[in-house]
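FAQ

Q: What does a record look like?
A: Structure on top, sequence underneath. For example:
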């Protein structure tokens, strides 16, 4: 059943706690801004508002193995 679970949060610290408790569950950070260094975030994916996405951010995120989800 864990293969059907994904955890997302607007707060970063709870995602780190989930990562420690159940490392096999993907976690994603919902950003209302672009992190300068997405590679520093210990998450599997980033969800960013469409109007805040730029190619530099996407390149850095993808370069560190993170998916980027586009929000409204």
């Amino acid at each position: 059943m864990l293969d059907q679970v994904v955890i997302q949060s607007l707060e970063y610290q709870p995602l780190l706690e989930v990562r420690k408790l159940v490392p096999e569950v993907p976690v994603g950070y919902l950003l209302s801004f672009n992190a300068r260094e997405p590679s520093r975030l210990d998450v599997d994916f980033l969800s960013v508002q469409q109007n805040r996405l730029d190619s530099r951010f996407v390149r850095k995120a993808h370069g560190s193995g993170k998916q980027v989800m586009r929000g409204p």
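Q: Is there anything notable about this one?
A: The two ends are 29 Å apart (CA to CA).
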